[in-house]
Amino acid sequence: MKFGYFNDENKEYVITRPDTPYPWINYLGSQAYFSLLSNTAGGYSFYKDASKLRITRYRYNNIPHDVGGKYYYLFEDGEYWSPTWAPVKRELDKYECRHGLGYSKITGEYNDINTEILYFVPENANCEIHRLKIKNNSNRKRSLKLFSFIEFCLWNAFDDMTNFQRNFSTGEVEVEGATIYHKTEYRERRNHYAFFTVNSEIDGFDTDRESFMGLYNGFHEPAVVKNGQSSNSLANGWSPIASHSINMDLEAGEEKSFIFQLGFIENKKAEKWSAPGIINKTKAYQLMRDFDNDKKVDKAFRELKDSWESLLDNYQLKSGDEKLDRMVSIWNQYQCMVTYNLSRSASYFESGISRGMGFRDSNQDLIGIVHMIPERARQRILDLAATQFEDGSAYHQFEPLNKKGNDAIGSGFNDDPLWLILGTASYLKETGDFDFLNQKVPFNNGKEAVLFDHLKASFMYIVNNRGPHDLPLIGHADWNDCLNLSCFSDKPGESFQVLSNKEDSQAESVMIAGMFITFAPDYIEICRQRGEEELAREAQNYVEEMKEAIKKHGVDENWFLRAYDYYGKKVGSVENEEGQLYIEPQGFCIMGGIGLEDGLARTVLDSVKDRLDTDYGLVLVDPTYKSYHIELGEISSYPPGYKENGGIFCHNNPWIMIAETMIGRGDQAFEYYKKIAPAYLEEISEVHKTEPYVYAQMIAGRDAATHGEAKNSWLTGTAAWNFAAITQWILGIRADFNGLKIDPCIPKNWDGFEVKRVFRGDIFKIKVNNPEHVSKGVREIKVDGTRINGNLLPVYQDGGEHDIEVIMG
């Protein structure tokens, strides 16, 4: 069942009924100010950090779902409704939500009154615009009342939910004309405030939630709206809100426009007070003036759309498959940008309170955005490197406001260091900016270093932390946060005995070993680019040692072992009753080159197909854990088929896609791609539930009661890895240190495809032809009509366009 459709020309997903299987959201903002908005106007806003600078309140996991948002109400002759359907949920005569790139437009019509609300965050502005157009489509004059509503969060979202004994006394607002200022705690420590305004005279306002709602009413029946009259309440403590009321008469066919603006202001200390106790509003006034009429809003909206067009123009695909084209050219890149901005912090599945910016997460996100915003990728790498310890380990998360490591989470995830090599190598391949390696960035302890020192520390951390099988120690966990093998019990075998996480554990990870040999060649090439030949030779020797360790201790019949636990027992082996085959090491060990020459890779991938494949993607482990295994940590705490216990963890499916391309099986790689790509799942939205335009982190596996149901959409490494799998390995166009490599591995029945790829300032228009209908192999490449040797497009950097003709065979 479909709940809407793609409009590729406008780069929008158009939702045609409000009761989607789960709230389908969009993200507004791309720099500092962000807003989440559902298809029925639910959501919340924040500045930089969803935890510490939350502007509006949202109620997670509530009944009914999606409670709290940016709401508007219309009142006429004792009847009221919401133009966005929610929260009143009166059935509308017409409804449509258009989620576009950085904006959403919700249209509703009831009793011949048509409304259109455009929501967006202008480029480089710390505010969001709600432009509301109201049109009388009837043949008679109408008298209406419009009510706005937002609920302020008291900045610190965790404290806002917990510290009521204090918070009910601190809420502080100020009303000036049509502007409601939220200045709670402005007097204490902070120099920031928010405001909600409209470019019209108002007929009333409310700033106290209880006065607006009524103590026992919900968002669907606010007392003020039911009565058709604002109470002009002023919040003194309790729960501050912002609501305006505007009375209007509309002649037949007449339309009026109102521009509401929710803004954030941060003053310097010297600007804190304009007078004792009075906030300095200079910046607020200017921000209001910037968007106070339709002409200015239209200009800002055009600039926003132009910005997204420019970003996406760096990679455009024409394949003849509209679902593939829209994923590659529009939605996958859009999701990569949103995920880069927010890591895993704020979604409808992440509260924005408990998560900062992940070290592992953010490095992976770079592979999906570095072709669009290399300069921002550069800064993110420096921010991440600054949280690294001198021994190469790193804080698992850092705080977006101060860019300091999160002490509550700490370090000890032993895969983290390697991701810095991936992120940095991706940037260097895209830009050729090798001087970046000399950028000064200290270690977490303040010791002076340059970026290359961090890469060396990352590499050597793995070398220096190996276990009894010469495989890398897992620490608290590797990529799979729920596989916690560094555990011991004084009474092994007693399943409910409390375990401890032992720092001197010898638990080892085959997956980290696979990552090491996959990312090490880039580190070695970086050493050589710097003239560090001795370092490169030493690194290659370590790679050979790791490969031998994997071959000797990491292979288990027809696949790779997952790990060894604290007691030295195999994990992911036929010797185990449950959890015999894990997906993660199968992809990485093959990407690292093991099994490509002796046929093992094909055997392993055949086992993956046989044991892990389902109609909705590859499950993480088989068989699932039916009982709790305390020595494995969190993984078996999930019911079978969910999350890491046999769920379809979409993040790691691309590793298998890439491995399939390395043995030349393009049909199989693309089959796996289609199973989890959201555009191909639109027809089963009632099963999939989450948005049909962005990837989810997890889809319930075959042992789950709800096989095929997705969770945790939007902010997931799935976005970047799937973009890499399809663009770099299946379509086969990937940046390398010395040029752009062309190495497709596609389904045999494809005739070819065309890609526009901007690379180091040049525009490559690449046309791939597949006359012999092979999956892999490049017979000939011509650049501007001249045949070149090999399959590496040279770096021209002449700012021009180059026509590339590729003949497969």
TrEMBL record:
Glycoside hydrolase family 65 C-terminal domain segment(s)? 735-774
The answer to keyword Glycosyltransferase applying to this record is yes
A GO MF annotation of the entry reads: glycosyltransferase activity
Query: Which residue ranges traverse the bilayer?
Result: none
**SUPFAM superfamilies from the xrefs?**
Galactose mutarotase-like, Six-hairpin glycosidases
Give the Gene3D superfamilies listed for this entry: 1.50.10.10, Glycoside hydrolase, family 65, N-terminal domain (2.70.98.40), Maltose phosphorylase, domain 3 (2.60.420.10), mpn423 like domain (1.20.890.20)
* Record's keyword annotation contains Glycosyltransferase: yes
Q: Name one GO biological process term.
A: carbohydrate metabolic process
Question: Per UniProt, which keywords does this protein have?
Answer: Glycosyltransferase, Transferase
All copies of the Glycosyl hydrolase 94 catalytic domain together span 308-732
Sequence ranges assigned to domain Glycosyl hydrolase 94 supersandwich in this UniProt record: 11-270
Q: Which parts of the chain are coiled coil?
A: none
| Listed name of the protein | Glycosyl transferase
Q: Which organism is it from?
A: Iocasia fonsfrigidae
